Amino acid sequence: MIYKLIELSVILALLIPIAAMLVWVERRLIGIWQDRLGPNRVGPFGILQSLADLLKILGKDEFTPKFADKVIFIAAPVIAATTVLMSFVVVPFSDTIGISDLNIGVLFFLAMTSLAVYGVVLAGWASKNKYALLGSMRAAAQTISYEVFMGLSVMGVVLITGSFNLRDIVVAQQDGWFIQSQLIGFVVFLVAGIAESHRLPFDLPEAETELTAGFHTEYSGLKFALFFLGEYLGVTLISAMSVTLFFGGYLPPGFLPSEWANMIPSLVWFIGKVFILIMFFILLRTSLPRPRFDQLLEFGWKVMLPLALFNLLLTAVLKLTGVIGGVHA
Length: 329
Description:
Elements: H1 2-33, H2 49-59, H3 70-87, H4 105-127, H5 130-161, H6 166-171, H7 183-196, H8 208-211, H9 221-246, H10 258-261, H11 266-287, H12 293-320
Organism: Thalassotalea fonticola
Subunit structure: NDH-1 is composed of 14 different subunits. Subunits NuoA, H, J, K, L, M, N constitute the membrane sector of the complex.
Membrane topology: Multi-pass membrane protein
């Protein structure tokens, strides 16, 4: 029990600085891809820019509007950040590192991502601001819609492995990553993950050109920092779950000789895969335009839902006919 508490404390203590450093990584990579410098003044290569931004945010006035519902206004960003942090509880970071080995790990992850929308909706409602309210309504419609497709997209993996346990799912990929048989499921999961984390091009709940800042228009200081933290933790979470479900988790690539693969710790393999997916998230921000909100929902129900159902049906047929096997826990 003491070991698990220490492990939990260490993982949480590392996740928050990692999310802060992602701000610098994103700005540097966008600068490279757009042929400009990016942050390069504070520290070597601008690496201390995130710390400077944090100090600036924490130095701002903790303003709560007089017309806001103060209790809910303060609770909303805490809910948004806490639900994302809770989702990391079931992620197996390596063959020995992982906070909880829940038998319902996939369901727990889906439940936490569903609860995250409460923080956004409550923030918009408690602000008593029309732009914040519109942003929160967009977030609710977007999140509730795309979590349906996200849940269906992982059911193919569950069918193959016969388990909701994330560590069992990783072990089942020893003979081949699920990206080979679940390519459609991965695409649906990734698109749904982008929509769930409100990242470009699906950042419509906080579209600056339309809603000033969306659901967090009235937020500043530490409360705004919690929303900011939740967003970047969400990117890390979706990347970590994509790696766990479709890219073998902490397992090395199968094409490498075992003596070479075993030279690198399983945690390093996991972090490397997650970082590659995070870079893909960042690349999307620099290359895709933002759709209209009606186009986003139409795309979800008319394209993502049929694809997710087709993938589930195809996986079930292939499993019954013995074309693809599975590892039963």
